[in-house]
């Protein structure tokens, strides 16, 4: 296997496994999936990991790479983790939490709502986050190691021009139309009446539990966290930091057997009962009631704010970027001046084709470049009702790639190639710093240019 080609694949595909179990809604398949097939220092690779990675491509209708290539990806991932331990490369908890929230947001968008996720997996969103946290942390460490290895690589305009001039003219790619679109999002507010209604419902349930009714039975009947409800609201043991702060703070203030007051979080309203604590972990049950974001959301304030911002922007009193930074409640895009980024590239230019969000596509289809839309309805990735205004910033015409218009894309390719070469050299040297062992059944894979037939 050509390691240079493999590394380019690894950088994009090695982390597919992280959420594959959850994103395709499938559990472990087959038998003997727990067998260890490779080891890198103290990091093990199971046959189930390889199979799940392979199945994640198949379930999404994609052509899966060869299993040898997937195994190499997993081994390179473990090598980066092992070397990170040796070199004391760490990531901050707040960065892990932010990445985890983003991934859960993607899951919510894919499944349509939190309720659908809970019903699909039989677990609360908080429990899923707790289970995924170590995977996300490992992913962040891998990314940091990759950055550390290749961050010194730079490119010059001459290198980009040399690369472009080396492409045969009849092989130059065709670039479709791309657009830059910004948005400013304002969330609807749950009405005071609905909040009071939910609080009173939970107060009534608390009173019933205090009079002797079984908390577990009440959770099974009334909780809208469907995953934990079937288990009497049981959330299992959670490590500190795994749950949202409001929930965790209230739970840890209780003594075993005690119930909390009504706790509001981003997920709704909770009534919590602490079961026990164990070191840095705690075990609780809860009853969750969620606001109805369709019937119980007041859009008056959001509409008024967006109308005012639109008027200020159109009169050149305020720039769209400044308005987004200070006012948009989509924090991911607020920091980019409201520009919506392509998730696969991280670039604020979207390909104008069927891959675009249909709601966005049809919205700008009625707009001209430079226009700002009136406030329109919007559903956030986590299912909340909102309003937004759109800014149709720019549109490029479809064309054959050229150095002037596509310099940024070409430069990214050249930089990626240089970084891949740096990573290739690093992997060659790093092999001597870590212990790598591969089961005999994969001896023909020649992972990283090596043939391993060690028994584990």
TrEMBL record:
Molecular function GO labels: peptidyl-prolyl cis-trans isomerase activity
Which SUPFAM superfamilies did the record assign?
Answer: FKBP-like (SSF54534), Triger factor/SurA peptide-binding domain-like (SSF109998)
What is the protein name stated in its UniProt record?
Chaperone SurA
**Database matches in Gene3D superfamilies:** 3.10.50.40, Porin chaperone SurA, peptide-binding domain
**Keywords linked to the UniProt accession:** Coiled coil, Isomerase, Rotamase, Signal
Q: Which organism is it from?
A: Dyadobacter helix
Indicate whether Signal appears among the record's keywords: yes
Residue ranges of the PpiC domain? 176-276, 279-376
